[in-house]
Amino acid sequence: MRIALFATCIVDAMYPRVAQATVEILERLGHEVVFPAGQACCGQMHVNSGYFPEALPVVANHVRTFESGFDTGEYEVAVAPSGSCVASVKHQHALVADWAVEHGVKGADSTLAARADAVGARTYELAQLLTDVLGVADAAAQLGSYLPGTITYHPSCHGMRLLHLGDRQRSLLASVEGLEVVDLPEAEQCCGFGGTFSIKNADVSSAMLADKVANICGTGAGACAGGDASCLMHIGGGLHREKRTTPSGRPVRTVHLAEVLASTREKPLTIDGELALAGTPGGAR
Amino acid sequence: MSTVSLGMPALPPRGFGNISETEPFPSYARRELQNDQLRANLRHATHTIRDKRLRVVSELPDWEELREAGSAIKAEAMERLPELLAQFEEQFTARGGTVHWARDAAEANRIVEGLVRATGSSEVVKVKSMATQEIGLNEYLEERGIAAFETDLAELIVQLGHDKPSHILVPAIHRNRTEIRDIFLREMPGVDPELTDEPRRLAMAARAHLRRKFLSAKVAISGANFGIAETGTLGVVESEGNGRMCLTLPETLITVMGIEKVLPRAEDLGVFMQLLPRSSTGERMNPYTSLWTGSTPGDGPKDVHVVLLDNGRTRALADRHGRSALHCIRCSACMNVCPVYERAGGHAYGSTYPGPIGAILSPLLTGVEAEENKSLPYASSLCGACFDACPVKINIPEILVHLRGEDVEARHSRPGARRLPSQFDLAMAGASWAMSDGARMGLLERGLPLGKAAAGRDGVISKLPGLGAGWTQSRDIPAPPAESFRAQWAKRAKNSADPHGIKEGEGK
Amino acid sequence: MSARDDILARIHAALGTDITPGEREVGASAPGAGYRATSGRTEDELVDLLVDRLEDYKARVEVVAAAELAEAIRTRLEGKTFVAPAGLPADWLHPSLADRRATDSREEPLGVDRLDAIGAVVTGSAVSIAETGTIVLDGSPDQGRRAISLVPDHHVCVVPVETIVGIVPEGFARLDVTRPLTLISGPSATSDIELERVEGVHGPRTLDVLIVR
């Protein structure tokens, strides 16, 4: 299958290793990955901040960029390693397009909403694509995924509540060889990121983050995995600020689902040159 | 975008009363966050009720179908509102009741005052009611020499504590048992000085305190959970029996009901009497529900009135994208699951309606362009827990985003205010320019090494200027990579004969 | 313009022409679509469920045969004075209770102070909903005025087995909402202090339910 990668702006600019890991997983399964060069961002930050006029060109760019490859058959589906960006593509793009028409914005395109829906229908979050489309149920067997250690998992809000990912991400993690996934207390609680919420309501956001960080550290896991780089940046930033360490004294990190799945015996996931979860006891499968 | 409202019909007038922020949400919340006792009380209470709700909701095999039906019935009621209100009026009147209409809080207060005065009584007992809280009825009556006694335990705690409600179902949720005991000892006439903080003892103290009032009251004032158009029936859902006391024993009963509370049919109660109790207190059914239709000769109040209240509801109804906020049945499930409410508490929202529903309802009632409510739509991380919990499926996150859009538009088009773009405006415009084109984004990403250079030796940035300061007050930010994924991919493609071809060992 | 006309005009303006007929799925909104209309439970299951739910609310419940009802009521009254509506079936009350009974009716109502001095109340009931443990009084002659089942501190309520339904919609299907209705699910309770349920505030603190089959 030919698959378009929507890297998302934050992964593209801040976490290229997550996009690399995504490519690696898909290629390991024998699929071909395409990176549409015109892509930039889903526009979620603008939409969620109420800047619809500013969101419009961002949304239009995304739709234009991805639909052309669908139309020419260059790729069949698109994937992004982010539940919230996929939710934006699926749910917000058409709303922005409708808003523009309703408000008589100059140059508003009455076909944009339907086109956005068409792109959205073929866009998947990574775990969704792996599980529902590519039939991956056992990461160890099908992807050779291997990562020794103990990890906990935060299901980001938009993947959980807007995409209804259920236990897809967690199941994939649990099927990685050597990896023990421990439950995160109050896992379904928002980490407090919320895009510009983290700036506009910095105090409440920080209070939510503090509880998330405390819950993660309470598990004793070496890292917290998730499917959204933005939430992970937020949580990771809190862990780092508080200098949180595992019982064995190593920093507690955040890692993206894609990085964990891409990790193998030959090339296990490392962070800053160290094995990602070194020092935490790993559950043998 | 500045002339959008030109040529459109004038919007219905805004509502007034206790539906506004008293200060911007972020600063109120910052203060409340420092109150450890408050946070502990809220955490305990919201988590307790959250778990109860989940348990009783999971018992029903058709919960999602009930939510669907509840949502559809409310949408139907809004669509047929003029017809249903007229039908309700006709039925209620035919069965001996009197219907009054109030455009806003002031008119509703005047009507109620007149009705109380006509009875010759100078005191009233009250059933907990959001509508009368919204219009500030108690304060209005007190100023005019009419004493209004709240009879719901939590409302009593709030009233005796000279406090404000902070939750629509459990108005004293911010108080723990010890604080309540102290309020009773201080404020309740004739209370046993040996009173302990055991909830049972506290409830019994309230029973003794109010018993005489109930038995002697001539006038009661209530709200209503439902008004059935088909039959002219009103309903109050409660727990303690204070509602039954007020609705049954006095000679005169005055009900203040928002116009959006009307339901088409009696059988709709079969849906809402499943949705409401399970969503609000987490019980299969609340202990008491009273339904009355006009007056019944020989049973209950002889003189029965209802005041149908607009106070900004038509304003909310005029907002096509926001009107479903009027579907709210005041169950409070959204605030019980909201991580922002749990930490900031109800007072930070200013309005009678706190939490996620308050963050949309208050600005819809006043109009989001009303300065005092403009920070409410931002009081959410958009996590969506409220939407999942809402028994009538109000898409609160989507309405929050819609109202943010209205706010930005109103701010940018506010006459007089010279349109000096804020730092935030500039950041958004810049990001829009960059993020609407892959080539521009790629160009900007060439600056990433600058960010890397700005990072400390541990590879993170701990202090950002301007807008970013909000972020770095409690979080570090990683140093950006030397190269974007886009740039890495371009190199890889260049090294490959096939532009989409994949070769082992590439990509770094 | 009257407030009434003003508000109705505002609503018309607010709704405008946004909603055109057929835009919403009116068919889907018809009650009965999707959710359960009946529970399909047998009589034995209904009784068991109702008992379970009432006990969960801390009500005292007993299932009795018709012939045992009078004795069961007598026992439950624990020697207290009580009020009964004029229309309560005569054979529900043991003859020995006659001198402890006060009778109430719409025509000859007892004052609230009198009711407050009475220990208990005995009534029948209109409908009971098993799944939620809810008993509905509708002011019929065997149930009387609302005040009598409210002011006395102890309510002995008789539930004939044929009045038990499974779920809430079945309950409303049997009721006439234009009668003064009181839905009772256990004794009075509050959860206003730290969300901890406390039984017994203003309504009767003791609820005895006698299910007759």
CATH homologous superfamily annotation of the largest domain in chain C: NagB/RpiA/CoA transferase-like
Q: How many extended strands of chain A? A: 10
**Shape of chain A from CA axes?**
globular
Strand order of the largest sheet of chain C: 1-12-7-4-2-3
Number of helices of chain C: 6
Distance between the termini of chain A: 31 Å
Level-2 CATH architecture of the largest domain in chain C: 3-Layer(aba) Sandwich
Helix content of chain C: 10-25%
Beta content of chain C comes to 15-25%
Helix/strand structural class of chain C: alpha/beta
The oligomeric state is heterotrimer
Broad structural category of chain A: alpha/beta
Computed CA radius of gyration of chain A, to the nearest angstrom:
19 Å
Largest sheet of chain C: 6 strands, parallel
Average pLDDT confidence of chain A is: 94
Beta-sheet strand percentage of chain A?
Answer: 5-15%
User: Could you state the order of secondary-structure elements of chain A as H and E?
Assistant: EHHEHHEHHEHHEHHEHHEHEHEE
Largest interface: B-C, 103 and 78 residues
Which spans of chain A of ≥5 residues are poorly predicted at pLDDT below 50?
none
Number of strands of chain C: 12
Describe the structure.
The complex is a heterotrimer of chains A (285), B (508) and C (213). Chain A is of the alpha/beta class and 285 residues long. Chain A contains 14 helices and 10 strands. A 4-stranded parallel sheet of chain A has the order 2-1-3-4, with helices on both faces. In chain A, strands 6-5-7-8 form a 4-stranded parallel sheet, sandwiched between helices. In chain A, strands 9-10 form a two-stranded antiparallel sheet. Chain A is globular. With 508 residues, chain B is an alpha/beta fold. Chain B has 3 domains: 25-311, NagB/RpiA/CoA transferase-like (Rossmann fold), CATH 3.40.50; 315-413, Alpha-helical ferredoxin (Fumarate Reductase Iron-sulfur Protein, Chain B, domain 2), CATH 1.10.1060; 428-496, no CATH class. Chain B is built from 23 helices and 12 strands. A 6-stranded parallel sheet of chain B has the order 1-10-7-4-2-3, sandwiched between helices. In chain B, strands 8-5-6-9 form a 4-stranded mixed sheet. With 213 residues, chain C is α/β, with parallel strands linked by helices. Chain C folds into 2 domains: 1-35, no CATH class; 37-212, NagB/RpiA/CoA transferase-like (Rossmann fold). Chain C has a 6-stranded parallel sheet with strand order 1-12-7-4-2-3, sandwiched between helices. Chain C has a 4-stranded mixed sheet with strand order 8-5-6-9. A two-stranded antiparallel sheet of chain C has the order 10-11. Chains in contact: A-B, B-C. Chains A and B meet through helix 1, helix 2, strand 2, helix 3 and helix 4 of A and helix 1, helix 15, helix 17, helix 18 and helix 19 of B.
